[in-house]
Structure prediction request, 94 residues.
Amino acid sequence: MRGSEMNFFKNKISRSYFQYLKENPQSLLARIYGIYTVDMAGYAPVDLILMAHTLQISGELERVFDLKGSWVGRRVNVNPREKTGGRTLKDNNF
Prediction:
């Protein structure tokens, strides 16, 4: 998360977001458990969001993707015409 995104969330939408989730407990919006800044010597600080997994859907899903925004090591070998059989696909499979 970039600093501008962190500031936008904290200053503009966080109150509305948490109020909405409180009023709509069945919402499929991802739950945010925490927002953290990791600051290590020799590296630029990185802002991270810890979110709940959102698969609250009953029934069978054909495909599930884990999207990280990276191209490196982000493919699972699977036939695109078949269901994934519970395997999570990655960015390059999308």
In short: Strands lie at 32-38, 46-51, 64-66, 88-90. The chain has two domains: 1-55, 60-94.
